[in-house]
Design brief:
The protein has 126 residues and is an all-beta fold. 0% of the residues lie in helices and 47% in strands. Strands 2, 4, 5, 6, 9, 10 and 11 form a seven-stranded mixed sheet that branches.
Length: 126
């Protein structure tokens, strides 16, 4: 059973930055596709970014150019660097993982993932 633990959330002013971390209890993290999702109150969970085992990445249009996903397999950790934060980025952020995701499956969909973390709150407000 893979466990995921998110950290790095908090309160930040508009225009500020945060780096979220997703630590995984896996010895072979490199085989996993990792996704970051977020959910604001009253809204559906939406895909923010994902990184496949190949290293290919995806970003939602709303965060393209501001967020960067990366992975450090040696540390079993995936990061989401968030810059130029906006109030609309306020949400609970979750990381998710699935091993050996087929290239035929989109990594943007919640249904692609097997394991989920508990989430970390990000609040962007002045």
């Amino acid at each position: 059973q893979l466990q995921l633990v998110e950290s790095g959330g908090g309160l930040v002013q508009p225009g500020g930055s945060l780096r979220l971390s997703c630590a995984a209890s896996a010895f072979t993290l490199e085989i996993y596709t990792i996704g970051w999702f977020r959910q604001a109150p009253g809204k559906e969970r939406e895909g923010v970014s994902c990184i496949r085992s190949s290293g290919s990445t995806y970003y939602a249009a709303s965060v393209e150019g501001r967020f960067t996903i990366s992975r450090d397999n040696a540390k079993n950790t995936v990061y989401l660097q968030m810059n130029s934060l906006k109030p609309e980025d306020t949400a609970t952020y979750y990381c998710a993982a699935v091993p050996r995701l087929s290239a035929l499956w989109s990594c943007r969909s919640t249904s692609a993932y097997t394991y989920w973390g508990q989430g970390t709150q990000v609040t962007v407000s002045s």
